[in-house]
Every structure is written in C-alpha cells, then in structure tokens.
Amino acid sequence: MGRESRCPVSHDGERAEARALLELDELIVRAPFRLKVPRREITSARAEGAALIVEWPGGSVELELGEPEALRWATEIAHPRTPAEKLGVRAGQRVLLVGPLDDGELVGAGTRVEQGPADVVFVAIDAAADLERIAALRGEIARDGAIWTIRRKGSAEVTEAMVIAAGRAAGLTDIKIARISATHTGMKFVIPLAER
C-alpha cells in the first residue's frame, strides 16, 4: 500500500538504479544499496526539484523520483497516513472488528465500531478454521462495503491462496492486498458489482 519507484539513487558516494519503497513504517532501497530506514528515525525528508533527500542519524539518501513524485513522497513522510487511512477507512463509516485486532490501528478517527451493516469489516484469520468467518460476515456488510481479512505474513497454516478461495466461495471478489504491519497482511473483499 506504500509508494514504489525504480529510480536513480545516490548514497555514500555511490549512484545506481535501484528500487525504492516507502512503506507504512520504513523506507526501503533495494540492491545495490540494501537500505532499510525506519520512518521514526527519519529526521528530514525534502524535495529539491526532481530529487527526494532523506536524512536520518545513520546517513542520507537521494532518490531521483521526478518533480511531482519527490514532493508526494516528502509530504507523505512528513505527514504519514494511518493504517486505517491507507485501507480506505473514512470518518463517518461504520466499522466492525471480528477477532483479536488492534482497533487503534484499523479504526480511523470519526468512525463508529458497531454491528452491521458495516461499511468496513476487519476479520482476524489466525487459523484455517477462521476462514469460515468470511462467509458468515458477507451478510454483515453494506452493499458497497468491504471485508478486510487480516492474517500473519508467511503463515503456513493460513496461506494467501486459502484466503482467496474462502472469499470467492463466499461469493465475494478479492480486489486488493495491503501490508498492514511488519507482521501482518490484509486482503480486501467486496460484493461483486452485479449483485449490489
């Protein structure tokens, strides 16, 4: 759900083409640099023309993203969106949480946590048995609502393929995958347009 670009990068006197990712909690620059900078450690992020210059106590990096994109990245670093905002949760929406979830991260300001019909349902999928919750929750969402399944990354017990199969078996369409945190990932399901 973050930003991504393949661009010229300058770091420690080296310059090379690299893949840069701005994630929820870190800036990543892939080979040849292999940088992972936690966002909480970034002391400065500014756009200078087409370049984004990011500084932290351990150094600095310059990403040549292009003029409008450098400004977007700098603004996002300075004013990060919450996980709820990245997942499309807006003020005034009705939100339902099912299972052990961190409501402080998933529920945005001005939303209401209550029973359906919910605009957004977040459901924890920690074990294969939890997949049955998806079908049970289909009737709990508003016609244009969504179900976000939240599962641990790399789980052998509950794979991405299993979640997709359970959602489709419930008559839902999978439309998005998002990084929720360093340990969890989310998948968004909606009622197919033809059935709304």
Query: Low-confidence runs (pLDDT<50, min 5 residues)?
Result: none
Tell me the structural class. Answer: alpha+beta
Please provide the count of β strands: 13
Query: Helicity, in percent?
Result: 10-25%
Please tell me what the overall shape is.
elongated
Give the N-terminus to C-terminus distance in angstroms: 26 Å
- Major sheet characteristics: 7 strands, antiparallel
Rg calc: 19 Å
Number of separate helices = 5
Strand order of the largest sheet: 4-3-2-1-7-6-5
Query: DSSP strand (E) fraction?
Result: 35-45%
Give the ordered list of helices and strands.
EEEEEEEHHEHEEHEHEE
Mean pLDDT: 89
Written description of the protein model:
- The longest helix has 12 residues.
- The model has no long low-confidence stretch (mean pLDDT 89).
- It is elongated and about 55 Å long.
- With 196 residues, the chain is α+β, with helices and mostly antiparallel strands.
- The protein is built from five helices and 13 strands.
- 18% of the residues lie in helices and 42% in strands.
- The chain starts with a strand and ends in a 6-residue tail after the last strand.
- The strands form two sheets. A seven-stranded antiparallel beta sheet has the order 4-3-2-1-7-6-5, covered by helices on one side. A six-stranded mixed beta sheet has the order 9-8-10-11-13-12.
